[in-house]
Amino acid sequence: MTTPMSGGQAAVAALEAEDVSHVFGLIGSATMEMFDALYDSPIKMIGVHDERTGTHMADGFARASGRAGVVLAGQNGPGATNLITGLSQAKAAFSPVVSIAGMLAQGHIYRDAFQEVDQQALFTPVTKKTWTAPSADRVPELFREAFRTALSPRQGPVQLNLPRDVLAAQADFTPLQKPIGYRNQSVPAAQAADIIAAAKMLSSAHQPVIIAGGGIKNTRGHEAAIALAEALNCPIVTSPGHGDAIPFGHPLNAGQMGPRGNAVASRLVKEADVILALGTRLGFNATFYTYDNINRDAKIIQVELEPTAIGRFFPVAMGIWADAPTCARQLLDAVSQLADRAKADAWTRDFQAKRQAFLTKRDADAIMTNPMQPSGLFKTLREVLPHNAAITMDAGTLCLQATDALNYWSPGSLFTPLDFGLVGFSMACGMGVKCAQPGRPVVSLMGDGGFGMTVSELSTAVDHGINTVTVVMNNKCWGAEKAYQRDFFNGRYIGADVSSPPFDKLAELYGAAGFKADKLHEVGPAIEAALACGKPAVVDVAVDPSALYSFRRDSFKHRGG
């Protein structure tokens, strides 16, 4: 039996068949049939103020829920082009975002029509795949393909363009099926011979280390990684942006490694004789692609779900194409059966002593005076943030410092721009996380510049009761760039300073709650009040504008300094 529907109605029916709960979008005339169908749908439509931030919300929702996040740009042309930044971000994070955009009618293509842009070409470089629906009857098929592609390893964003005439056209449709039956239900495991060889390599190491990356974090595979580390009695470091892959309190967790990580974790990777890279590309943020950040003489065992990532940046002693937690469990079984094993106990004891000394010194060295210094702010945040909080970050110097300065007590609690280095991401991402996990406190850290980019979404949060807390670390400048101008360009400041209204008062004008912390002792009470207020909240924190730090010193070696 068939049912007549418009292409727009079929699109919403396809979303319902995928059990989509939220659509983040901005209404537009190109997709009116689809929005009209959403009126009668159980799907919650979150109307946003900008398609870019709507994509960040879908990204945060996807990462927090493990399901696809959906964003709908109602207008072709500018509505579609606004998606590009968010989709580029999602691609860098391997986040399964299904992006939908209206498109001009097919009869108007190549005629310089109103708001015409080649959307098929535009989205292809920033997605796993892009489709343009040719007819109404094929809409459900392409939605199935879009979700399947986004959710298949490696996950990532996809784009579906829906021409106006396709959405308006009528067709007869059979009942849409749930995705069971055409989705992958398993992940690849390592070959038995490779597991035996890798287990022997690990067991013979005196200074082994495990690097847990996105392949552990995104699969919530920490238990498998921890069990293997415990069997080997070896430390685990996490790749940058994935500091929550292993619970902070575990005694084998060293924190984030690499040029933006902490000194203890970074030293482990520089001195290890065997490195098990578990679900990590050993990419830019982790290594800057140099042996300055990884031991040239170490034997590297790289486990990756994406075969082209294996050995891409560093030669490996063994490359294993497999799901990271599955491989970790296989290695645990093999290691447990080996009778002749070297002991890494001295290496691990030394690491644990250095780790404890580092954490103690981090607290002791925090500057608790005013004007407010980043170290004092981060110490206060460590004390006041709930252990079950989800924390989102922007890029920028303060957030980059904060990423390894906070404690992540449970996996799936840190959401950052990762390798895309995006400013203006955090609050919108946090709103998506909150929609996916409404019972969880969500705290978003941003600089004043990034918050100014996206402040209009406060009304979205108020309208839909998305009660996150945004902490604006307000240093009245673009901090990273101003630090580079100070350190490498003789203090020739241009375009570096930012003026803003009082963000606490601005939040109140939007109908949210606003709090101000000019002194360090005011930060903790302000954040606690914001978490308890029952509304979207902004905490405007005054950070010393002169507390600047140059992260990318490698980029300016040619200038000295």
Blueprint (SSEs and pairs):
Layout: E1 3-6, H1 7-17, E2 22-26, H2 32-39, E3 44-47, H3 51-65, E4 69-73, H4 78-81, H5 84-92, E5 97-103, H6 119-123, E6 129-132, H7 139-151, E7 158-163, H8 164-168, E8 170-173, H9 192-203, E9 208-212, H10 214-217, H11 222-232, E10 236-238, E11 253-256, H12 263-271, E12 274-278, H13 284-287, E13 299-304, E14 318-321, H14 324-336, H15 345-364, H16 374-384, E15 390-393, H17 397-403, E16 414-415, H18 426-436, E17 442-447, H19 448-454, H20 457-464, E18 469-474, H21 479-488, H22 503-510, E19 513-517, H23 520-532, E20 537-542
Parallel strand pairs: 2-3, 2-4, 4-5, 5-7, 6-7, 9-10, 9-12, 10-11, 12-13, 13-14, 15-16, 15-17, 17-18, 18-20, 19-20
Antiparallel strand pairs: 1-8
